[in-house]
Task: structure prediction
Amino acid sequence: MRLKRLIAGSILAGTLAGAALPALADELFVPLFSYRTGPYAGSGIPIANGMHDYLTMLNERDGGINGVKLRIEECETGYDTQKGVECYEQVKGAGALLINPYSTGITLQVIPKASVDKIPVLSMAYGLSAAAIGNTFPWVFNPPDTYWDGASAIITDIARREGGAENLKGKKIGYIFLDAGYGREAIPLLEQLSETMGFELLQYPVPGKEMQNQSSQWLNIRRDRPDYMVMWGWGAMNPTAVKEATKIRYPMDKFYGVWWSGGNDDAAAGGEDAKGFRTLNFHGVGSDYPVIADIKKYVVDAGKSQVDPAKFADNLYNRGVYNSMLIAEGIRKAQEIAGKPMITASDMRNGLENLDVSEARLKEIGMEGFALPMKLTCEDHSGHHKVYIVEWDGKDWQKSGDWFSPDVGTVKPLLQKAAEDYVASNSPWPERTEPCLNK
Amino acid sequence: MDLLYSVFIDPFVQMAEMPDFLLQVLWEGFVAGVLYALIALGFVLIYKASGVFNFAQGIMVVFAGLTLVGLHEKGVPAYLALVLTIGVMGLLALAVERFVMRPLVNQPDIILLMSTIGLTYFLVGFGEFVFGGEPKQMITQELGLPTGSSAFEIGDGGLLILQHIDIAAAVIALIMVGVLAVFFNKTRIGRALRAVADDHQAALSVGISLNQIWAIVWFAAGIVALTTGIMWGARSDVSFALEIIAFKALPVLILGGFTSIPGAIVGGLIIGVGEKLGEIYWGPLVGGGIESWLAYMIALIFLLFRPQGLFGERIIERV
Result:
């Protein structure tokens, strides 16, 4: 009998501990899907810390946003799509303002659900590229850039170095990617560019289970001798790839990574030999910004952060900060539009769709020089903003060159087509009924 | 006709045209094979002594690697950290024997297998609780292991690149196999261990302590796990993703036999070299990515002819 009670009690306690509690009337519930455990924790931890710390700083320094405290709650997904969907189900009925999946696989799964449940999905620079088409995906946002923007930006930079796009004809560009929804997302765009520009695209998939066992892929790369390499890696795949590249003596200045391959630990695995490795970026590196100073003062020094002090303001940490800035500015805009501080998920959608972070606003929030102004519209939920390249100097990331635009002219029509294809293959896809406030 | 040429002729033409690259592929396959063999050794040791497929061997690799690097990060000198890690693996072995194995004596094999799955989850959680989930860089140089590489010119402009850490891995693996072979064949404990493997009850009847043997064998598997963690960690880093790599040892075990130490080594090398040759020369025919299943195909083909594996004990059922 006692055993039965103990089991029943444990199950009840476990259920209560696992469930997200409903938001209180005087707080805004911001769930953060994160992964501090598992094979992808190396990338997930710094981002989770950055996201959490910025929002905590707003609570500590400003008492929240417009007088309303934020309830920040992490849901551990382990970068596992099934667990991510469970997290979604947990938070959707608890007053979540938005879903922040932090995984392309999870994003792809929750896109159809969120449209029905009326919860906005913020997939910052990841997820389904076609979701940038706001009229088809009114509940999904992927600022400041889509994966297709990223892929086109890398090809743009390669073309610049080769003296023009016409000189890419006959070149070989290798694409090594995590063989999952995330890594496969950029392939259609790269194939299109390969066809129009005349370069040969060589693909090297890395199965998730073989992330730390890439010698075959890099042997193939050594044999094929691509002129440039592009990587879409995550978690343990990144440092392994950097090490393998140095092992085969691949010229690291011709090795590009998308922004998610730009963790400090990723490049540090190759140490001095990885000098020249380049990744995309869309926010500042380092700690020399007022916003980072405030996070240090109000959160890290106050013992309210989980970040390892040695890894504070690492590149991926700053990525998390940028992500939470978008959340916070979305909330502010939503409050402004709704005319009240307490907002709903539906209001939050309006806030994100009307997001307009100007230069002046960036200065106010301590992000001058950290990020470029950005703006979303009803039609464009990404913005296709400028990016820049960071280069590994053997110890840290350094800015290399100016901000530049992705190949928007190529990307936008392809996104439109991809959105139409998505609708056709997910029929009946709901027509947009949400009013547009920024026409 | 084209297909026949692509399958039976072209790969060998490629090998002949680029001998340096072929040597590189064989070397990489050999190194991968050595590492697979090391993981398989851990499985074999425990299976020999208790008939248990130790599902936790992969996480033991991660746990040992994390303990070593974690201790060093706390300021413990590298060699002392190594000694302390060996001590931790010893404590783990005692704990496993006392709290997992001993209460399950005489239970069906499936129960023992389930207990190692439970142990896996415990070690994952405990490891993350103590060391955090972030990957750590192996302290290769601090341990005096070689870094860097040597390049050898082969033929006309060809290059064979050997990583020093890979050479060290091969040497250390060979030493470890030698030590284990001597331990099993020449020492009293080793002979007792073989007796337990042959028949638990007969071993007990002649006064061999089952508990002591199990603790020793789990400790030996812990040492093998530590060696694997150091070697594989030096190739990438020490992270929880390494746990999955451990299951690369499954086809090695099928091939080499669950009870044979030489089988683990030979099986590891066949799988390591076979999957690299397959992926590089035949993989492109089907779009690549065949490495992850090719090892199982090789093992399954062997199973058809030798269900007990290359070196496994012949199964004789008397009716």
Summary: Confidence is low (pLDDT under 50) at residues 13-18 of chain A. Chain A has two domains: 16-146+286-385+416-425, 147-284+388-411.
